[in-house]
What does this fold into?
Amino acid sequence: MDSITNLIEADVTPLKISSSSITEWFIDFIQKIYMMVNKNQRIINTREKQLDNNILELFIVSLLKFNLENDLLMRDTKNMIPTILNRKSCFRELFYICSLQYPYLVNDSISTLWHRITSLNDMKLENIDLDKTTSVPLFLSDPVALLLRIMLSLSNPVAKESYQIIVQAIFNLVYIQALFTIVSEMNRTEQESWSQIEKNKSKNNMTKYLSIVSSKLLQANYNSNTDNSKVWSLESINASICERCGNFIKIAALIQHHLYQPITWWTVSLNTCPNWGSRICLHINLNNKRESFFSKPGCVFPFDLLWKNLIQELQVYKDGEPYWFRNDSLSSITNWLNEIFQIDNQHLKFLRHIARGIPLFHSPRFIHLPTCYADLLQPYIGLQCSYCRKSITQPILCLICGIVHSKEDTEKKCCHQHIHSIKEHLISCNEGLNLSINIHSTETLIQRKQRYNYWSSLYLDKYGEEDIHFRRGRILYLNEDRLKLLYSAWISSNLDQLSNTSSIDKFDF
It folds into this structure.
């Protein structure tokens, strides 16, 4: 811990690069990415040689976090094809390029941030001006951004062991942050019950944390205004903490996976490796659960198994509680709580709206499609426009939102309201990217703005052949392989490669 503190507090030593043009290229590379993302700032002010340091710092952290979140989305998505899951990530190279510039963008704010997280020097709140030195209290900060900021600020690459210490320090904050949001959702009566637990007689540190957090929230009169019928137990609180900390654990493990040592079991598809489930159970000593979790084909890696495995990889958890880098953990918790309630009363009322648990977002998905094509076709026979009541001869079903509209080249046969609704849908649904099925032809339509392309049909007969426009009158069934291929291309932004080929075989990304 002391060695990491010394690295953070050390002056940044200029990187020795043989050519100054290479350094300029690195900076120009980051700025061009910024301009590509921010369409409203394509041209940098000619009076300024480079972007503002604060903007660049925020953008670098956001860029790296976006890559991690996108990678995590691929791993958390069911039915992703193995070629996408196992392709090489560019995060390591991107992190290296960003780390060349980032230390020059920050001052001593990172050092102050590290001391606030660790409380190793017992900084007093009266010595910290939250309006100037810090932007937001730690409990309202994004833990992934905190981790990236600290890692990028180190002028030299750190060892894996040092990285795990940094993760451990931030995970302590994330753990109490999750506990804070749970207690804030309790009503006053339940907070009083948890605050009166005899801390000194309890062997479970969780009860100590609950007591101090509940007491502090009671003093600030910060609780749920409604009568919450849910009664919390230690088991339910622990389960909720695991759920709320899950995203940070997975992101931290993903950074370790890219920068240090690949987590091989996380890159292998369950459907392509018959012994995958057995290897995981052996790795985390869960052989007695192997049959119940892995006996069904196509099952998803359960969250509790993933949690235990990643916790073991990061080494931040033991016996149901996190490791602490200092013996006086309650002192750190008190500092973090005092920091958030140092906010003046005028702005404290907004705390209830922002001091909530990080929302959990599910992976984007297609609408449910029936197995038999006749079941898909039947509801849209004789479909009429909701505005002018004219028949829609070529109905198009959006795979993303489920809306049905007429085919593009038949717009003129309908009313202006319907034409306008089609254009609005193409813009609003998935940012102008539209995936749909021509219900009367069974073809799949891929559309991006003014670009159109028909892809293979998702429905085939029992011989695996298409029947476009039902010329042969065959009974068609949903082909899971094609649906999986289309979904994987959509979720991984590979639709261009998919639509540029006329082959109906599995496409290698």
User: Anything to note?
Assistant: The mean pLDDT is 74. DSSP finds 21 helices and nine strands in the chain. The chain has two domains: 2-354, 373-499. The beta strands are 317-318, 321-322, 395-398, 404-406, 433-438, 444-448, 451-455, 459-460, 477-478.
